[in-house]
Amino acid sequence: MTDSTVPSKLIKEKNIGIATLLAFAMIPMSGFATDIYIPSLPGMTAALGISNSQAQLTLSLFLISYGVSQLFIGGLLDSYGRYKISLFSILIFCLSCVIIANTHSIYVIYAMRIVHGITIAAMVVAKRAFFVDLFSGERLKHYLSLFTIIWSTGPIVAPFIGGYLEVSFGWESNFYFLAIIAAMLFVMEAAFSGETLKHPTPFHLTNITRIYTHMLQTESFVLGILMLGLGYSMVMVYNMSGPFIIEHHFNFSPVVTGYCSLLLGFAWLVGGFAGKALINRPFNRKITTNVVLQLLYAVIMLLTLQRLHTLPVILLFAFLIHVSAGFTHNNYFTYCLSKFPKNAAIAGGLTGGLCNVIVSFLSYVMTATIPASDGGNLGVSYLVLILASILVMWRVNVISKKVEM
């Protein structure tokens, strides 16, 4: 083992409590970076003189870089530690937010959103591994099941704040807000946190590749990631379509967009709580039932919108579908992160990375092929993703029956 793999500042026992709170505070940062400027997407298109698809691409580029970075960052975190990489990433994220707020070049914004994805990936994967480093057994399972719930505070609060910031100060204020939050986290992290990796794994590309290969050959793990991607794609399709439906089709303000996102963020939170409450119920049965309910919601949504195309109807069925998506995500996220405890950062990075690559691809393709014109198109997008989820769950059940035999 080289000196570069030896952590320098181990976390102090007395600081574990506050460091745990800071770790939980950092989990929603990916949601904040994604969702706070959703109400500003129509405003950005006007201010920057760009198309809807160009504005939506800022979301997709973030998700792609966030996902791809997680595929590789886990190996670095398992070898060089969590603390310094995470701390440096917070600082870079803060500076890149300031750059976005002071430019009107869409290409600079694209570049900085890619930087956002890389730095947020390092921060979030490091904090996921933080819990696996310090806790085990039922306590670890409890903390992991809280991830979806804690993360959902971002999609709940961020668009609500972003709507008011957009109306009061313009789209740039969203990124100043993110910079302030990041600066506060940087100061707190530097003062109270520290390294949790006591036994680093030497960075040998061959060994790390072998670990990745083993994980990717575990079909139940890969199918779990696919279910995560399909579930969150339902949320992201709304995030990319909803502002244009609300502000262009129904002619409401960005504040209304923020309130709608607040409601649907709460739906994700409800799904997370339901997943945690039923965590000990038979796994495949509860997920299959949940996906079938989603299918029912989507079909009724499309039938209802043919006769009554109103925003409350869209929100009602989107709420039910997002509750179910949050339920699936809570269960499968806990499952995937606890699958390989000896390689926590790699497993966490691979889970989050592949999930976000899937989400970025599916959400962009869906919004490109089924434009954000009305609630009917949103319902069709939901239906396609739900049917894909049903196919995946069919395969999961087939594998489970083989294992039982």
UniProtKB/TrEMBL annotation:
The UniProt entry, under PANTHER family, shows: MAJOR FACILITATOR SUPERFAMILY, POLYAMINE TRANSPORTER 2-RELATED
Give the primary localization class: membrane
Keywords, in A-Z order: Membrane, Transmembrane, Transmembrane helix, Transport
What Pfam families does the database record attribute to this sequence? MFS_1 (PF07690)
Q: What Gene Ontology terms describe where this protein resides (cellular component)?
A: plasma membrane
| Domain (Major facilitator superfamily (MFS) profile) ranges | 19-405
Protein name per UniProt: Predicted arabinose efflux permease, MFS family
Question: Which parts of the chain span the membrane according to its record?
Answer: 16-38, 58-77, 84-101, 107-131, 143-162, 174-192, 220-240, 252-275, 287-305, 311-332, 344-366, 378-396
Q: What are its GO biological-process terms?
A: xenobiotic detoxification by transmembrane export across the plasma membrane
Q: Where is the protein localized?
A: Membrane
Q: What is the lineage of its organism?
A: Bacteria, Pseudomonadati, Bacteroidota, Chitinophagia, Chitinophagales
Does the keyword field hold Transport? yes
What is the source species? Chitinophaga jiangningensis
GO MF, one example: sodium:proton antiporter activity
Keyword flag Transmembrane: yes
> What topology does the record note for this protein and the membrane?
Multi-pass membrane protein
